[in-house]
Amino acid sequence: MKALWRDLRDHLRNDFRPDLYVATTLWVGLLLAINYHLDLEDSYIDRYQGHPQWPFLYFSLYATAYYVSVWLWTYFHQRPDIWRNSEFWLRSGCALICYSIYSGFYAHSEWSRQLFDGQIYVFAYYCLHNLQSVLTIVLPLYLFYRFIDRQPSSFYGMAPKRKGLALYALLLALMIPLITLASFQPDFLASYPT
């Protein structure tokens, strides 16, 4: 736990700028207000469900939120060099594309309907739905890492360190009673019946 507090303290010492945090808070507040008022995803983007432009609309939504946030960071830290870095564009573009495809990917529903019928359809649908993130995020990022990125380090921080594992285990142990308690609440059960 000491390592977590030390890392948090070091991050705040190196990165904390009240002007940046206020600007970022205002930007996130604006995004939330627009999305709450217009309901962008359900009212506009999902109209194109199943059409080829659906992932492009998601990409536009996510890229706007992400790149303006990065611009705020680079502006307040006086780091315009980030925008000229091809590695930044390659990595961020790949990640945004993967997440946009993930968000706009519902082919598993049609695949389940075509391949299976009757009661097994529901089971097949949920199996394919659970594999969706593997097919649309993990596999493309692994291929990117393996053939394009070629960094000798771990797979984007996925090589655990012993001190990190102990910390994660402690945090998980703290969360299990809270999750168990929440799982018996009517509101929670209405949102997550399984």
UniProtKB/TrEMBL annotation:
<keyword id="KW-0472">Membrane</keyword>
<protein>
    <recommendedName>
        <fullName>Acyltransferase</fullName>
    </recommendedName>
</protein>
<feature type="transmembrane region" description="Helical">
    <location>
        <begin position="20"/>
        <end position="36"/>
    </location>
</feature>
<feature type="transmembrane region" description="Helical">
    <location>
        <begin position="165"/>
        <end position="184"/>
    </location>
</feature>
<feature type="transmembrane region" description="Helical">
    <location>
        <begin position="56"/>
        <end position="76"/>
    </location>
</feature>
<feature type="transmembrane region" description="Helical">
    <location>
        <begin position="120"/>
        <end position="144"/>
    </location>
</feature>
<feature type="transmembrane region" description="Helical">
    <location>
        <begin position="88"/>
        <end position="108"/>
    </location>
</feature>
<keyword id="KW-0812">Transmembrane</keyword>
<keyword id="KW-1133">Transmembrane helix</keyword>
